[in-house]
Amino acid sequence: MTEPLRQEFAAGGAAATGETEYLSFGLGDAEYSVEIMSVREIRGWTRTTSLPHSPSYVRGVINLRGAVLPVIDLAVRLGLPATEPEDRNVIIVVDVETRTMGRRVDAVSDILTLSQDQLHPPPDVATSPGARFVKALTILDDRMVRVLDLAQVMPSSSEISL
Amino acid sequence: MSDPMQEIMASFFVECEELLEALVDALQTMADGEADGETINVAFRAVHSVKGGAGAFGLDELVGFAHQFETVMDLCRSGALGIDDKLLDLFFRCSDMLSDLVRASRDGTAIDAAGRDALLAELTLHSGDDDAGQQADAPQIDFAPMAIDLDDLGGPDGEPFDLPGLDDLPDIGDLPGAAEDETPLDGDAQRRLAVVFRASPELYESGNDPRSLLKSLASLAPCTITVACDPVSALPDVSTLGSRLAWTIAFEEPVQPNAVREIFEFVEDLCALEIRAGDPDITATAPAAGPAPEDAELATTATLLPAADEDPIRDDDPEGDEQIAEAPAAPSPDAARSGAAKTAAKPSATVRVDIERIDRLVNLVGELVINQAMLSQSITAENNIPANSSVLVGLDEFLQLTRDIQESVMMIRAQPVKSLFQRMSRITREASAAIGKPVRLITEGEATEIDKTAIERLADPLTHMIRNAVDHGLEPPEARRAAGKPETGEIRLSACHRSGRVLIEVSDNGGGINRDKVKSIAIAKGLIPGDAVLTDPDIDQLLFLPGFSTADKVSNLSGRGVGMDVVKTQITALGGRVGIDSAPGVGTTFSISLPLTLAVLDGMVISVAGETLVVPLGAIVETLSLTPGSLSPVSPGQYVVRVRERFVPVLDLATELGYRAPRAADGTGIALLISPEEGQLIALLVDTIDDQRQVVIKGLQESYGHVPGIAAATILGDGQIALILDPTDLVQNASLPDDSGQKSRKAS
To answer: B295 pLDDT exceeds 70?
Structure first.
């Protein structure tokens, strides 16, 4: 509904300053971020309906104003220790390509404005299971913030129909 | 879509579909021997209207073909050509080609030029009209723009004027003696025609230009055009809106009267037109020599003129209305014809609505249903309201209304299966021609309505089934003769409503399924073990296995090993079931049973391992309350339950869906008896049955993907999502030992 406006805003913002805004959130002890333009909304945690035979990181589906929204447990997806959902947790609803999905994260922390040269490619040596999901790294006030590659985080169709 | 021309084209193509449907209908009526005098007219008009519309968009291919088609039909109409089976067959093939051409024009795809030319040749054979091809080309003539000043045309002097470029043509008086008889419609090509044309004011109002008509006429043959003007009494009385000019066009070479009519096709209601042989007398023409309707038309014009005079600057609209109102009083023969065509095509008033709008409405009503459920749930749960209070009574009425609205909205989406059946009759014709088996398709219950999406998605499976019936179901003519059956095979395609579902049956009166052959092929292909003992229904079910084909030789039509398994998948995806019934020597019947709607489903709300699920009510045969000891183990973790002298395998739903680890059944809880396939019974163990209600189906496919055993999702009254079970899929993927043993075991 606000799609054209958003894109215009995104394009204008990026072209004018070379900077992009990111939404950062906490997951366990680490801090991650996603491009804010792909974030559709943030909502509080609700109970999910689990899907049979789904990968462990798929928490289930929730009712998002009449639409069925699959929710991914980002911690599990990134290979972090799984935690039981709490009411404090939030679901970040993101648009990736043509699909809309929810991501469960611990808490949303900040909106960061980063320029292109602040982003560093992740080191090749990374072997942790979540490494392929990290697109870039940045250092902010001595904290390392990982920028996620949302398309990679999406469950592929082969993983779903296991 | 922003291009208005595109939109007009789009609506033309939609109309074409309707016209083609009417055409096939009429042809079918003729084939059934129930035709009356009007039937051929209906068919003719349909083709004619397609041609007319196509001409307006410059779709020459379409016009050319439609023209030849209608020429032959016209001969039938006039009785010059008798309609027999061969001609009807040609008509059917032509209507197929016509719809191909329409589709090709719409999608810009290539056409089967060879097929078309062959049909054209056949048509020409019937019309015996050598210059018909030339006629068909007529609309392709390039109309070069010509500059004619309206002043010249509208000059009150009444002097003859010549079209630029035609000045050197001989005067009308020099014409060699023209035949005098008044039968221009007989199509005598040797006749030199004179055309008298008088435009009515509406012609100008609707933006038509006599100049282009005259130009088109001039392009047919060299001609002399004379203009006459009505006498004007005094300038102040002259209405600027009136029409005072009459043109006389005298052709100097033979011209087909139909070619002239074609040019005036779109303005035939807006002008007085007379086509006749010989030397026209301009002054006498309009009032005296013209046919009666023409008189009336001119009279209309005349009576209107004084009215316009009273108020020269009045708006056009009232006058327009008045004329429209008067028009039916004086219909020309052509107008009557086109009017009849409209009434024939549309027996009741309809509105064409974009399907997206309906879908939006369907979605909104779905939300309403959910909302209503949430409201009633929260009211009854949170407040201690007495059962007969006005709130609850109101809530009940609300529920009733919501259901009514929902049903009405669903009915908008429902469409008769007629269009689908018509496509199938074409498939039958083509299949029958391709393999040389004479086949007659009988359709029943064409008015049965099912969801539009279902109609679209049924086309492929039905095509497969019809082709299969023609190719495998029916015996070759010799074999039929030997068996004492009529050589022409019969395929019956029927649709009806039965207990909340739609039943579609394809049956043939062929040899029935050769079960020995089916079984030996299945064994040869390794689909079943060689020593499998199968009942007849089991063998029939083998046809649905992927990779199964019984055809001795692979024909163009079928026998590539894809077919019935795909059919089954497609029907199952629609929430339907396929069944087979076959008797040797008598025939085979395939039946498809579909839910009425694809958006709402009656379901039983159950809970299992703390999760709430919905089981489609149509799948449940009965429910059983288990008592300890009613389950008997047959192997570790495998139980059966005895239901009226029959042992039914038991599936623990929670385990099948991976909600909990397999556990020893304690014989408590509830079992739902489901029948995923004809004759098969499975007992599903659930914890409790909570409710029975209508649920709105929300697809999981788009947002997530396919979930094994799950058909879709829905939103319950508390706002929670519940999954809708797909019993057939669940059983197919179940870790259940299958009696025939050929299904893949799938561990969850």
So the answer is: no
